[in-house]
Amino acid sequence: MADRQTSQRPTVLIVDDQPENLSVLGELLESDYTVRVAASGRRAIKAAASLPYPDLILLDVMMPEIDGHEVLRQLRANPITEAIPVVFVTAMDESHDEELGFKLGAVDYITKPIKPVIVLARVQTQIQLKQAQDKLRLHNADLETEIRRRMRDNRIVEDVAMRALASLAETRDNETGNHIRRTQGYVDLLARKLAERTPQSAALSLDAIEMLVKAAPLHDIGKVGIPDHILNKPGPLNSDEWTVMKRHTIIGARSIEHAMDGEADHSPLAFLHVAMEISHSHHEKWDGTGYPAGLRGEAIPLSARLMALADVFDALISRRVYKPAFSHERARSIIAEGRGSHFEPALVDIFLARFDDFQAIALRYSDDDRQD
User: Fold this and answer.
1) What is the pLDDT, as a whole number, of residue 109?
2) What does the radius of gyration of the chain's CA atoms come to, in whole angstroms?
3) Backbone region of residue 174 per phi and psi (left: phi > 0; alpha: psi in -120 to 50; beta: other values)
4) Residue-level pLDDT at 1
5) Which one of 129, 276, 351, 365 is at 20 to 30 Å from 305 when CA atoms are compared?
6) Closest by CA position to 240, among listed 251, 252, 226, 222
7) Residue 181: CA count within 13 A, CB half-sphere
8) Gap between the Cα atoms of 16 and 91, Å rounded
């Protein structure tokens, strides 16, 4: 039960259709417990779900209309009362009755005529057990809250660290941290809209999309291994320079792979596997004419296909040392022309259908030299 008791003393609910039995048990327990009584099964069900919630219920089995077994069934079916321990109080001693009670969830039996010493001992035992369970449940709830907080903090630290690391690569060729945020936004938008078309795809679950977005900033991490005179050359690259430039995909993938070396359990670093895919293959093209491996169609990892469109669109609308920033409309036309050749057709269709959203992301994280 999530709600705390309003009474300081443990509360015992006594349920019996005989007033004399209620009186005897009530007088026996009232010195140590807050005692509540119910003279029928229906009243017992209502009383158990109202404050102060009972810490223990002493429940008579043989009652008119609704017997104790049915009362217990209904208590266990209600989230408010399902965890309240119930002790049956009955004059019956047949084994099958006890078996049924235990199957329904009773914690103990007390037989009539009652013996005060036995009643007090069993009530005290069950109350102590209930209090220990409540403390454990509260401790577990606090622990779960702390774990969630730490996991959230870890995700924030991971995101910041990845962006900081990626920014080191971006500054090598005069790009900005906003390029990272924009491409993350594009990837997130593309992936979520693609997931709507293929809702059963495990590769596009919410967790998978979160990993895609987390991994996206590392797409160009391999640029740290490209010489400045090639990376920042204002004019076209010659064939030798272009060969070197294309190696940034392999450099990045290997760097991420090496970062995971020695980790026996890679599951906490699953997003780095996605980052390795993106870094290696985001310059592959749908028709197989890309690099570094000349992969074609769905042989290209989905993460890299998403990143390819996001990265090219942002490169087109951004100023580079070798080109001015293109207008959004011109970039839109170039992406559309690449449908089925450079880019996966389904992704281009999403891009065109949600072009306003892409523009909104671009403007939200715009640079001063960006064109409208």
Assistant:
1) 87
2) 34
3) left
4) 42
5) 365
6) 226
7) 12
8) 12
Distances, alpha carbon 126 to alpha carbons 12, 26, 159, in Å: 11, 17, 49
User: Which residue in the block uniquely carries the two structure tokens 């999309």?
Assistant: 209
Strand, coil or helix: what is 205?
coil
- Domains, the chain: 11-142 (3.40.50.2300), 173-364 (1.10.3210.10)
Q: How far is CA 273 from CA 29, 164, 219, 280, 312, in A?
A: 63, 19, 12, 11, 22
| DSSP 3-state of 111 | strand
Whether residue 41 contacts residue 71, with contact meaning beta carbons closer than 8 Å, is answered with: yes
- Identify the burial level of 344 via C-beta atoms within 10 angstroms of its C-beta, where 0-12 means exposed, 13-18 middle and 19 or more buried: buried
Average pLDDT per block of 10 residues along the chain, 372 residues long: 57 93 92 94 93 93 89 93 91 66 86 89 92 87 83 68 63 66 95 89 88 90 89 89 95 85 59 91 97 97 97 93 90 98 97 97 80 42
Strand partners, 325: none
Residue with tokens 């969630």, as numbered in its chain: 148
Measured distance CA(211)–CA(193) in Å, rounded: 16
Q: What is the pTM of this model?
A: 0.59
